[in-house]
Write a structure and sequence with these properties.
This is Beta-amylase. By secondary structure, this protein is of the alpha/beta class. Among the domains are: 37 residues, no CATH class; 293 residues, TIM Barrel. 39% of the residues lie in helices and 13% in strands. It is built from 13 helices and 15 strands. Strand 5 and strand 6 form a beta hairpin. Helix 1 packs antiparallel against helix 2, helix 1 packs antiparallel against helix 3 and helix 10 runs parallel beside helix 13.
C-alpha cells in the first residue's frame, strides 16, 4: 500500500514539474511578445510626433535617430534583457518550491485524509475538498457558501446543455452499480469525465455531504438542436459553466445538513462478556447466556459481537485448534436468528481498562517467551510486555518454525474453514482483526503494570533485539549507522512533553535524527497493519473486515475491506 502511494506521489510530482516548465515557457513567450509590441508602439509614437512638425525633406534627418532608438531598445541583450532572465530563474525556483509543497500536501491528503483528488489536482481542489468536509458547498466555478443556506447564489432556473452549431450525439451509459449509502462510487458520466480533463474545469464526484438520499436528485439534461433530450446527468449544485462552447446551468435547491437521519436502518450489535468462553473453550454459563440472547432478540437487536481468543483456541500446541465452545455459541445465535460479528483477538486479556477476566497468550508461546523474551515489546529499561508479540518478529521464524504473521494467518484460516457454513448463510457479517494491544493498531506505550498513569506520555517500545535490528538496518540505509538507537532524552512513562528534551517545543523530534526515528517507528506500525490485514483479506475473501485504531482514548473500527 505504501509503495503504491509513493508511486502515485512520484507521478504527481513529475506531472507538476512538466506543467511548471510549460507555464514558465509560456511566460517567456509572452514577455518576448510584449517587448516587441512595446517597441512597435514606441516607433509609431515617434513617427507621429515627427510627421506633423517636419516636411518631407526633413524626414530623412529623423530616420537615423529612429533607427538608433529602435536598435537601442531591441538590441541583442542589454540591461533590459538581462533583468528578465534573472527574474525567470527566480520564478522557476519559486514555482518549483511551491509545486513541491503542493505535491506533499496532496500526497498527505490522499494517503491520510481519504480525499478523492485528481492526480493533476492543484491547491484549489485541496481547499475545495477541505471546505466540503467542513460542511460548506463549493460549486465548480468556485462559489462557496454554507450548506444551511436556503438557496444557492448561482443564477438560473433551468438546466440544460445546448449546441449552437452542430448536433451533439450522446452515448447512453448504464447507471453505476448500487453502493453502500454514504459511500461515493466514483462513477462519472461522459460529460463529467471530459470536463475533468479540461484545464481549469473540475466537476467533483458527488459526496454524501452534498446530496441526501431522501432529497430529489438534481439532474443535467443534454439537449440537441432538435430539442430532444438525450441524456440525464447528475449535477451537484447550481452553477454555470462553459465547456466546448456549451453552457451548463444548474438548478439551485436547498442542500441538506450533515446528518444521517435519512438513513433507512442502523444495525445494532451487542458485545458479549469477555469471559463468555472459559479457558477450556466451553461456554461458561450456557443457560444464562441463552436467556440473555433471547432478551436481546425480543428487543430487535440485530446480533452480537464476540472475541475469539487466540490464547483459548490454540492454547496448548501450535496449530491444534479447539473451537468447541464457539461452535455451540454460534449454533445458539443462529437458532435465535441473530447475526455475529467476530473479533480475532491475538492479545492478552487482563490488566487493561474494562478487563474482568484473565486470558493470556497461548501456553506454548509463553514457553518460547521464557527462553527468548525478545519476542515481546521492550522499553528502554529492558522491561518486557507480554500483552502481545513484538512486530519485530513478523518475519522472523521464532515461533516453532513459523513467523508471527504466519501464525495469525493459520489461525484465521482455521476459523474460516471451521465455520464455513456460518459464512455461507450470512450469520457472520463482519470480522474484526486484532493488530496489537487491546486489539488496536498501536504500541503498548502506556502499560499500567509498568507504572504508567494518565496523562503520562509513555515510552517507546523498540528495544527488543528484533526491533533494534530493523532500526539498525534503516539507519545504515540512510548512511548514519550511529542513528541505530532510541532517543535518550524522551523521558519516562509519566513525564510531560515539556519536561523532555525530545518532545518539548523545538526539541529533538524536529531534528534530522528525530524525524528519521519517528518515521521508522511509525512505518513499522503501518507495515504490521498492512501485513496482517492483507492476510486477513486472503483468509476471509468476500467478508467485511475491519481493524481498530487508537485515537485519543476512542476505539474506532476502521480499514474496511471486502
Amino acid at each position: 500500500m505504501a509503495t503504491s502511494m509513493q508511486k502515485l506521489v512520484g507521478v504527481s510530482q513529475e506531472d507538476d514539474e512538466e506543467e511548471m516548465e510549460m507555464d514558465v515557457k509560456e511566460e517567456d513567450d509572452e514577455d518576448e511578445e510584449n517587448g516587441e509590441k512595446q517597441i512597435a508602439a514606441q516607433m509609431m509614437i515617434g513617427v507621429d510626433e515627427v510627421m506633423p512638425s517636419t516636411s518631407s525633406s526633413d524626414q530623412f534627418q529623423y530616420q537615423p535617430q529612429l533607427q538608433e532608438q529602435v536598435s537601442n531598445q531591441s538590441g541583442g541583450g542589454g540591461a533590459r534583457r538581462s533583468r528578465p532572465l534573472e527574474e525567470k530563474e527566480r520564478t522557476k525556483l519559486r514555482e518549483r518550491h511551491r509545486r513541491a509543497i503542493t505535491a506533499r500536501i496532496l500526497a498527505g491528503l490522499r494517503r491520510h485524509g481519504n480525499y478523492n483528488l485528481r492526480v493533476r489536482a492543484d491547491i484549489n481542489d485541496v481547499i475545495a475538498a477541505l471546505a466540503r468536509e467542513a460542511g460548506w458547498v463549493v460549486l465548480p466555478d468556485g462559489t462557496t457558501f454554507p450548506s444551511r443556506s436556503q438557496s444557492s447564489p448561482a443564477a438560473g432556473t433551468s438546466a440544460g446543455m445546448t449546441s449552437s452549431s452542430s448536433q451533439m450525439v450522446s452515448q447512453q451509459i448504464p447507471p453505476p452499480p448500487a453502493t453502500l449509502q454514504g459511500v461515493s462510487s466514483g462513477y462519472r458520466t461522459t460529460v463529467e469525465y471530459n470536463a475533468c480533463r479540461m484545464k481549469g474545469v473540475f466537476m467533483p464526484t458527488p459526496s454524501h455531504y452534498d446530496l441526501s438520499s431522501t432529497a430529489p436528485a438534481q439532474s443535467l439534461g443534454v439537449v440537441a438542436d432538435g430539442g430532444e433530450q438525450t441524456e440525464r446527468l447528475p449535477l451537484i449544485a447550481g452553477s454555470t459553466q462553459v465547456i466546448n462552447d456549451k453552457q451548463i446551468i444548474g438548478l439551485p435547491t436547498k442542500l441538506p445538513e450533515r446528518d444521517f437521519a435519512g438513513t433507512p436502518y442502523v444495525p445494532v450489535y451487542v458485545m458479549l462478556p469477555l469471559g463468555v468462553i472459559n479457558m477450556k473453550c466451553e461456554l461458561a454459563d450456557p443457560d444464562g447466556l441463552l436467556k440473555q440472547l433471547r432478551v436481546l432478540k425480543s428487543i430487535n437487536v440485530d446480533g452480537v459481537m464476540v472475541d475469539c481468543w487466540w490464547g483459548i483456541v490454540e492454547a496448548h500446541a501450535p496449530q491444534e485448534y479447539n473451537w468447541n465452545g464457539y461452535q455451540r455459541l454460534f449454533q445458539m445465535v443462529r437458532e435465535l436468528k441473530l447475526k455475529l460479528q467476530v473479533v480475532m483477538s491475538f492479545h492478552e486479556c487482563g490488566g487493561n481498562v474494562g478487563d474482568d477476566v484473565c486470558i493470556p497468550l497461548p501456553h506454548w508461546v509463553a514457553e518460547i517467551g521464557r527462553s527468548n523474551p525478545e519476542i515481546f515489546f521492550t522499553d528502554r529499561e529492558g522491561r518486557r510486555n507480554p500483552e502481545c508479540l513484538s512486530w519485530g518478529i513478523d518475519k522472523e521464524r521464532v515461533l516453532r518454525g513459523r513467523t508471527a504473521v504466519e501464525v495469525y494467518f493459520d489461525y484465521m484460516r482455521s476459523f474460516r474453514v471451521e465455520f464455513d457454513e456460518f459464512f455461507e448463510d450470512g450469520i457472520i457479517s463482519m470480522v474484526e482483526v486484532g493488530l496489537g494491544p487491546c486489539g488496536e493498531l498501536r504500541y503498548p506505550s502506556c502499560p499500567v503494570k509498568h507504572g504508567w498513569r494518565y496523562p503520562g506520555i509513555g515510552e517507546f517500545q523498540c528495544y527488543d533485539q528484533y526491533m533494534l535490528k530493523s532500526l539498525r538496518k534503516a539507519a545504515e540505509m540512510r548512511g548514519h549507522s550511529f542513528w541505530a538507537r532510541g532517543p535518550d532524552n524522551a523521558g519516562s512513562y509519566n513525564s510531560q512533553p515539556h519536561e523532555t528534551g525530545f518532545f518539548c517545543d523545538g526539541g529533538g523530534y524536529d531534528g534530522y535524527y528525530g524525524r528519521f526515528f519517528l518515521n521508522w517507528y511509525s512505518q513499522v506500525l503501518l507495515n504490521h497493519g498492512d501485513r496482517v490485514l492483507s492476510l486477513a483479506k486472503l483468509a476471509f475473501d468476500g467478508t467485511c473486515i475491519t481493524a481498530k485504531v487508537f485515537t485519543g482514548g476512542i476505539k474506532q473500527p476502521v480499514m474496511l475491506l471486502n
